[in-house]
Amino acid sequence: MIYSVTLNPSIDFIVRVKDFQLGGTNRAYEDNFFAGGKGIMVSKLLKNVKTDCVNLGFLGGFTGAFIEQNLKKLNILSDFVTVNENTRVNVKLKTETETEINCQGPKISDSEKEEFLDKIRKIESDDFVILSGSVPSNLGNDFYITIIEILNKNGVKFTLDSSGETFSKSLKYKPFLIKPNKDELKEYAKREFKNNQEIVNYVRENLVDKAEHVIISLGGEGALYIDKNFSLFAYPLRVKENVVNTVGAGDSVVAGFVNYMLKHNDVERAFRFAVACGTATSFSEDIGELNFIEEIYNKLVIERKCYGN
After folding, report:
1. Domain count of the fold of the chain
2. Name one GO molecular function term (predicted).
């Protein structure tokens, strides 16, 4: 079973406004509520590609109840710990540009934390765990490392979609997949990259031995898969005039790659499928649907480069 951990879920309130005026009264022409949080987005993508996944994390209050009901309607499994405080609401304001207001989220009590860790301890070695998103403020960023240490002790494969110190510390445990974007890679490397070849060279020398698989997201410029002996570059594909939704695109890449590798163990096709998932979500209101993903999969251009030892 795949488990997707969302420690700090949210309701994503997406508001669309034309001619937004700061400091004035604006009227939305469209608004939607979605169950959100990076791990939940992962589970929604997996559901769309016909793979079961159990959501783990913390939910509370009327906002948490909305997320629980939303996931049930989608037939997505969940085993959240119920907490006393309300799950957060994040606002995504879409005008000529996109603005996000992400709230802090609930504080987690010691008993709630231990209840969650007990669920982590029960995960078995033939399961897989995807960790992604922010951590409730009072748990601290090292809480992910606490989870990873339990998984590592039990022989459970995992991927962590995070950045900064948490990302760096997780490499000690050799994740199945890491997927930093270009800015996160620059932060980790403490340097700039002039072109894709510089990224490939750096990752081959410094990261490929620290994770089983490495994908670098280049946003609208495509994506890279980098191994010691070869690299894959996915050219960007614009399937519609404008990007509709940047929320969940990276989560879709992670979910798509893990899903395909666990089923087929084919790196090049898994990378193609992952990029197709991310692209489909970018041009969808919520998460990319399977038929749209398959359409994009067949149109993607992937360039392979091989390197000597």
Report:
1. 2
2. ATP binding
